From TrEMBL:
Residues 25-53 are annotated as: Disordered. GO terms for biological process: DNA integration; DNA recombination. This is Integrase. It holds the Pfam family Phage_integrase.
Amino acid sequence: MTATTSRRTKGAGSVFKDDAGVWHYRTELPPDPATGKRRRIETTGRNKTDTRDRHQAKIDRYHRDGTIPTRRSPYLRDWLAARSERRRAVLKPNTWYSQNCRVTTISGVLGNTRLTDITPAHIHALADALADRDLSQATINEHVRYLSQALDEAVLDELIPSNPCRRVKRPRPDERTVTILDEHEPAALIRAATQTVLAGGARGPHDDPEDTAMWALMFELAFATGMREGERYALMPYELELRDGTPGIHVQQQLQDYVGGPDASIPRWQDAEHVTGGLWLVRPKSAAGDRFVPISRSLWDRLWDRIIAYGMGPRQFVFHNLRGTPLRHEQEMRRWRRALDAAGLPYVSIHSARHWAATRVAESGAGEDERKAVLGHTDIRMTARYTHWGAGALGDMMTRAIPTLAPTDTQPQ
């Protein structure tokens, strides 16, 4: 085959027209770092100018996506966007959405910087820019941590020699204090919930006595089990089990409100069933989340009273609104605030009930494995974050641990 060639700079590639009148543009790439095999980009076409432009666009796309190591490093914004899109298929919808928001924020500050040009000074500039937006130190650290994880991947891809985030020491965030109710205050809140009728209006229908009883039972379940909100909303009769004569709840699922609603991008590994709107029924957060939580016989009986009264099937929601659909956080939040006000209690979050339960379990003398089993944690350090030791419990522990050291029958001289 006779070909018309034009000389180009060594290493840049080649351009030629074959006997059929087809133009060829070729660009040599560095060898594949994993296999060592030769790589190149090639574009063909009948029109020289069009072929050249399409070939250049193809090269630019490869550079922008950061899929190959080149002398021309991709911009951070393009590489982070491509990485985020790749991860979308393996992350839960809300997790991906949160991480993609970080990509947008980071790109707004450092997006025009090429990967190879990023230095520790850029990381400090990012932290300063986020601080100027009045973001907390914990939130700033989350953004820097995400960028560090991404740049670790860039090192593995041989796009950069090292991760500049590793040379930056992040300030330790202030510890967030979670306020919980005292040992006996939940009873007052639950009692107030049974007596508090929420008036109707633009924000929703009024409560009737059956509704108030349901919310009181829901709040009691939160304190008595430490179950997560989504686990309580997803409770179905088949999860109530008797094991060795002990009544309890076999937590096996939770409700999640996913970004994207019924069209949310569910990763292949996740077992998810669409319920309504943005609500999906999914497995617990981890294997440890699938657990058996014992409850009192009284609570067990009242849960079954509700199930029988409504004629619920094994896989119907125990707690639901007037239309039979499962509850949402916003609905529970309104009743929770109203019950706190009616009981004259200080404001605490709904999630604090989980902290309250963890604290009571710890103060009972339960071992680490028992505490993790009830809360559904894989690491005792996480369980410790949910435990808030009271002065009385610590005092009792110290009394048991350390005997009186001074002699009691000695009189001062």
